[in-house]
Amino acid sequence: MADTSSQNRAAELLAKTPTRREAYEADVRRRSNRIALISTVSVVLAIIVLVPLAPGWEAVQRAFFNGRVFAATFPGLLDAFLLNVMIFAWSAPLIALTGLAIALCRDARAPALFPVRLFGIAYTDVFRGLPVVLVIYIIGFGVPGLGLPRPWNSPYIWGTLALVLVYSAYVAEVIRSGIDSIHQSQRSAAASLGLSDRDIMRFVVLPQAIRNVVPANMNLFIALQKDVALLSFIGPVEVFRQAGVYKSLYANFTPYVGAALIFLVLTVPATRYADYLMNKQNRARS
Amino acid sequence: MKLLATTALALTISATSALAAGHGACAADKTLTEGTLTIATGNPAYYPWVMNDAPESGEGFEAAVAYAIADKMGFGADAVTWVRTSFDEAIQPGAKNFDFNMQQYSITPEREEMVDFSLPYYTSSMAVLTTQSVVDGGAEATLESLKGLKWGAVATTTAIPVLNDVIQPDSDPLLYNDNADVNAAIMAGQIDAALYDLPTALYLSAVVVEGGALLGQFPPERSERPDQFGLLMEDGNPLKECVDAAIAELTESGELAAIEAKWLAEATGVPVIE
Question: What are phi and psi of A280, to 5 degrees?
């Protein structure tokens, strides 16, 4: 009894006083934190001190960081950004669904479905290979040019279609990589339980595949937030276009900086979240 | 008679060269490259401002004005070099690659805080470009009727404030990068009408836009802020006074009006919007 209590005390003591190794490691940690702090502060200071010393700084400041122009244009930019959010909001689900459909096309294994598979391959090859702007131009001006009546020739409809076409090709490839990452043995096991091909895909493969590719798809959706701005090429006045209008009215680039800030407010948290998901997944795997 | 003509010619030449020398002194040491005047225009430069995208020919309103100004400043045609810039390059901070930039830049007080403008060399009406089918559909040259149209414009122009402040359309206008995109939208029926400066609108309706028509114009004398084109220069460019002197001289002597009459079509047939 006395023996065990003294053992416990020894253990407690051990837990409280750090070993020499722990002390050493803590020391190293403190040291590296100190160095990181000093180096960060000196780099930031150097930027703050040195950049304004450049001979053209005043001109750059006037053209890009003009407080007066910023104050005059920022509310208008925020208004215009609503349109970005709306376009994003209706495009994203369409892209997710189309991407999934294309990925399934590419995974069609029955011989009779070979044309479907071929379609999937051609689709991803073509739309991954084209610049987004080009597709937006061709579809945004080309299709309405066929003589569609209003409102069916709206640039919102056809611009959205262009975004969906291009981005669903990317998403399809990501989802396909997720599907491929599920081992064949799982399909075999499911088949041996009597599941049909369809049910295997639906209940066994896809739930795991989609979960695996969530971080990769997050990246695509962050990219989509920015590419929504490309719709401005065919007319819609979203934040990038509105900034361009202000730029030409004021002969000043500050509105672009304002637009950049608005984008960052949205994309930085999204990027952090994607990183977090990716780390979580890595931890779960290891 | 021949003697008289020769004397007159000699007199004119000496007078011109004396004049040129006087202005040449003004521009000395102030240009980008000593002895040459570097003028920037758009890429591409549009008709009727520059014909065939070749400002070197001196054909087209702005090309002709540029050579006239250069001449008044003491630069012969062979001492003029052309470069191309976009709007953004023209207003970016830092060293410029041109002495002045000429591509229908409207003078506004806001812009003037960032760059310098010369005296105006042209005052333009704003004109409504549309198609015959829209006119047949009942569109008229009245503000009331214009409000109901679906509007488009080039995003980098001063047409935007006119659209928003004067016309105030019922639905949000669509904005585009350049003339070509606006025309594509008109032809695709995505917009009913677009707002341009009058010479551009005349050209587009006659040549580029299929079934194009001019619905009407907002004449400059009725506008609070008439659309005046000036040469754009770097803020604080010492050349400004020489350029201004040259333009003032061209305006007073009537040469500017003559160039305008030669290159820009008469616009009397376009109805005025009340």
Answer: -60, -45
